[in-house]
Amino acid sequence: MLFSKKILLWYEQNKRELPWRKTVDPYKIWLSEIILQQTRVAQGTPYYEEFVYNFPTVFDLANATEEKVLKLWQGLGYYSRARNLHAAAKMVVENYNGIFPNNYKELLKLKGVGDYTASAIASICFNELTAVVDGNVYRVLARYFGIDKPINSSEGISYFKQLATDVMNQGNIRDYNQGIMEFGALQCAPKKPQCNSCPLQDSCLAFKDGSIQKLPVKINKTKVTKRYFNYVVPIIKSSNHIKTILSKRTKKGIWFNLWEFPLHESKKELAEGEIQKVLFELFGAKNFSKVYTYNNTPIVHKLSHQYLYTRFWIVETEESLTNEILISELDKYPVPVLIADFIKAFKF
């Protein structure tokens, strides 16, 4: 039996019931694909449902504030995806009258839509014969055909795209593309593939030569940078309310346009005695009745290329500070998950 037919048969018998599989609406398929980039299905599904509930149409998403979009995205990480999502919705409304492009080439023009996403939407929604290649597909093809070309090299990307095109099922591209991705997620998993029950086992080259765990090959290009974040969390006590301070990150980089407590980034971990200088730099000659560290050991927050060694410093005062907000309104602001976790754990 051909490779593609085995994938289709497996998919028919094993596919998960997922909300975006009940539709071929390109808006909803696009939403699901953007959300699921670098995100597990179990984590991404509730976000997908929240987005569909809050923004039933592309017009609703395009007309939303960026702040609301970022708030709904909070916790998914890689926030540029959310900003691109918002920008692409506006493009669909402004350039296509709210109707999604119905082919691969036009879909590629949308902000944040690359080869994989354009191929997925075009094939699932419009039956266009274009092969998808994501992490799952790379893994299945590399193992089955025994290919050791690096999947993140120019040569590898081109080679696997052509191979995926050569072996795709042209009679049912919609289910085939979903099937090979599902197969990679469930059957040919990264660390614990189910080789003993795999319908492709008898012709899988990696299984035959014992190279399952060595494939696919990826060049390690990531250089991890250590950064030292010191968040100062003001507790401003007035006669009627307790307030704090949040400010928006406006510089390009991590967490662009998200909110955070006043931040001092140091070259190394701060000693207890150094915080007074930081307070003067941030707030000037203000009086703080109490200053203490929330966590003596830094919280290590790992991003794709950066490790953030983070401490939260609590400072109490009865003096007014700039950009105060009520503690009761903290949950209205989109914040990085590092900040969200602190807010949840700290008893204001």
Structure description:
This protein has about 350 residues and is an alpha+beta fold. The chain is built from 14 helices and 9 strands. The strands form 2 sheets. Strands 1, 2, 5, 6, 7, 8 and 9 form a 7-stranded mixed β-sheet that branches. It has a two-stranded antiparallel sheet with strand order 3-4. Helix 2 (about 25-35) crosses helix 3. The radius of gyration is 24 Å and the shape is elongated. The mean pLDDT is about 95.
Draw up the topology in text.
Blueprint: H1 3-14, H2 26-36, H3 41-54, H4 58-63, H5 66-73, H6 80-96, H7 104-107, H8 115-126, H9 135-145, H10 154-167, H11 173-186, H12 205-209, E1 225-237, E2 242-245, E3 247-248, E4 259-260, E5 263-266, H13 275-283, E6 290-293, E7 299-302, E8 306-317, E9 324-326, H14 337-345
Helix pairs in contact: 1-11, 2-3, 2-8, 8-11, 9-11
State the main characteristics.
single chain, 348 residues, seven-stranded mixed beta sheet, two-stranded antiparallel sheet, 42% helix, 14% strand
Quick rundown:
With about 350 residues, the protein is an alpha+beta fold.
